[in-house]
Amino acid sequence: MATRTERDALGTVEVPSDVYWGAQTQRAIDNFPISGLRSHAALIHAMVRVKRAAATVNADLGGIPGEAGAAIVQACDEILAGRFADQFPVDVFQMGAGTALHMNVNEVLANRANQILGGRLGTYDRVHPNDHVNRGQSTNDVFPTSMRIAAAVLANGLADELGRLSATLQAKSREFAGVVKSGRTHLMDAAPVTLGQEVAAWAHTVAAQRDEVLRGRDAVCELGLGGSAVGTGINTMKGYRAAVVAELARLTGLPLRGNPDLREAMQSQRPVGVLSAAMRSTALELVRILNDVRLMGSGPSTGLAEIELPEVAPGSSIMPGKVNPSMPEMATMAMFFAVGLDTANAFALQAGQLELNVMMPLMALDLTLGLTVMTNAVRQVRTRTFEGLAAHADTCFGYYQGSGAMATALTPIIGYAKAAEVTHESVHSGVPIRQLLLDKGLVEPGDLDRILDPARLVDPHGEG
Fold it and tell me: In this predicted structure, what is the pLDDT of residue 67?
């Protein structure tokens, strides 16, 4: 392989002659062949936007030559348009704080900017990775800013999918509004509900979790950019901090704001914890709902079979005709994965020491991967399961009619003890509760029809 010789603070390094990265990226490639995983495109694009904003502001303030700033901006725009995606090879498990990836971006931008200005790869005479692309910046404020912007973008995507899922469930709740069924607590018969009421509750949960994700999104929009190395703003120009955050907000369309204490912004990654917690709680609530879907759809002959899920794939390599709840199973595993990523985040978040938390590359991986997996899983389970969900209304009503739990409505009339006695007798004898009540003369026929009217039982106050 043809190479070119580059130099960094440790000496010379041989770099493939046709790549846009430089010496420090090449060292990272050699030092960290760990997972084969590369940084999420959202993280790369977020960092490139930080570099674009910094180049614009630094050029405006006179910190770098105008032609260097313009060339850096053009290089950034090319990457954001999809070029050079293969020039960011650094493994996600790298040196602390993310210096390797940060320098990878600096080197690619510097090489491309020099090329734009007529220079050759590996010559940094007119645009230098540190002196120009990284002017007034440090990994310590650039990486957390990039991580938070990437997470905010991906959180918006998850929130959008949760909103669509909630709307789908609301529509299904209206479709199933008249499907009366037995409720269940402790997995045992309970007072009746409608299938529509159950699904409406799911919709409410999903909408609430969407709001949690958006609160997490807002948390990570607080930035420490401008703090430079330790939060004091060393080597930044006067006016840079406010101007670069404003320029980033313009570029991203996000409600970005500066942390009033840049030391705190560097020491603590608390906003990451807020979003990660929202990711975790959303995953757990979705697992709960998916468990209900699988249970209610169990069968078709020996399970509950209250609902029918769309068939998306054969379910067995040995049992002909078997169809499984494949999409809920996939989505449940995806949610378990997201919970695991949040657990890794919890360890990373408490690992900060003095002026910096160096575990940010792990946090970036956890957030970008977790939010992406959750977003895709929610979309697929919505379109391939929930949108096609069907009710077995007769089965649901049969469970309701055979349940002794309807006796709950009789306790104000015949008392708890007598209602319990009739319920037990019905369960053990197989005689329906209605028949026992009439045979024993405990309730008049006309009153019984009114008391056990399904519409009254599922909506006792007529609230709809």
Answer: 97
Q: Kindly tell me if the per-residue pLDDT of 218 is higher than 90.
A: yes
CB atoms within 10 A of CB 8: 17
CB 396 within 8 A of CB 189: no
Looking at 393, 418, 434, the residue that finishes a domain is 393
Q: Same structural domain for residues 18 and 100?
A: yes
Domain count for the chain: 3
Of 17, 35, 316, 429, which one is the catalytic site residue?
A: 316
Alpha carbon distances (Å) from 358 to 33, 139, 346, 350: 19, 10, 14, 11
> How far is the CA of 386 from the CAs of 33, 249, 306, in angstroms?
42, 36, 14
Answer yes or no: do 163 and 204 share one domain. yes
Catalytic residue among 186, 301, 317, 428: 186
Residue-wise over 16-50: b if at least 16 C-beta within 10 A, else e? eeebbbbbbbbbbbeeeeeeeebbbebbbbbbbbb
**What DSSP element (H or E) covers 391?**
strand 390-391
Q: Which two tokens stand for residue 462?
A: 């007529």
CB of 113 closer than 8 Å to CB of 85: no
In a domain, 117, yes or no: yes
Question: What pLDDT does residue 426 have?
Answer: 87
Q: Do 406 and 191 form a contact (C-beta atoms < 8 A)?
A: yes
* pLDDT tens by residue, 72-124: 999 999 999 999 999 999 999 999 999 999 999 999 999 999 999 999 999 99
Helix axis angle, 270-296 relative to 360-384, nearest 10°? Answer: 30
| pLDDT of 464 strictly over 80 | no
Does residue 236 lie within any of the structural domains? no
151 and 125 in a single domain? The answer is no
Both 318 and 440 in one domain: the answer is: no
Q: Do 281 and 261 form a contact (C-beta atoms < 8 A)?
A: no
Q: What pLDDT does 121 receive?
A: 96
CATH number, residue 121: 1.10.275.10
Residues 164 and 285 in one domain: yes
**Residue 308: closest CA among 176, 184, 164, 399:** 176
Catalytic site includes residue 102: no
Q: With respect to residue 244, please indicate whether it lies within any of the assigned structural domains.
A: no
Known active-site residue 316: yes
Q: Which domain holds residue 319?
A: 141-223+263-393
- Taking 90 as the threshold, does the pLDDT of residue 205 lie above it? yes
Strands 222-223 and 257-258: parallel
